[in-house]
Amino acid sequence: MVNWRIREAVAEDIPDILRMIKDLAVFVKEPESRVKLTREELVRDGFGENPWQLVMHSFITSIPLGMDDVCFMRDLYVDPAFRGKGIGSELFRRVSEIALQNSCIRVDWNVSHGNKAAADFYEKRGGGVYGRVEILSPHWRTFTGICCQGTSIARH
Question: Which residue intervals define the domain N-acetyltransferase in the entry (predicted)?
């Protein structure tokens, strides 16, 4: 059995975070060359004066939307060797918990069209397809979930 725990990322995690971002790009068949995030940007954005919140290796940021905030989950990635052990479910639960603590009305995230396993994972947890986003490429769907009842995500 593998022991694991979820904790806030620290600067020493940066090499692992960058590796997993590149691994995710490969997994969703995006060219690794499209990964433009540098170590310096990650230090600034994750550990600077106004950092995004980093939970384990899942990026979360709050986006003002009119009068309400939305939590945008940038990436939730679990190394393939550790999948199927509940780590992704716990990370997702923690994202919802953090969103609620920050008075966010919902959590949004994107999933590659080709990543059926991820889409199924989120749909089982109450996420619903909201639309299609073409910021990165035409191959991404936007999911959304409403924060409610403690830390659950309900279908929108």
Answer: 4-146
Active site residue 77: no
Structure letter (DSSP) for residue 56: T
**CA gap 143, 152 in Å, rounded:** 15
The token pair at 64 is 């003002």
- Classify residue 154 by burial, with Cβ atoms within 10 Å: 0-12, 13-18, 19+: middle
Structure tokens at 67: 């009068």
Assess contact for 150 and 142: CB atoms under 8 A. no
Residue 135's pLDDT is 45
Q: What confidence tier does 34 reach under pLDDT thresholds 50, 70, 90?
A: low
Cα distance between residue 32 and residue 9, in whole Å: 23
Cα–Cα distance for residue pair 46/89, rounded to 1 Å: 23
CA distances from 35 to 23, 70, 107, 132 (A): 10, 24, 23, 21
Catalytic residue among 122, 125, 127, 146: 122
Is the pTM higher than 0.90? no
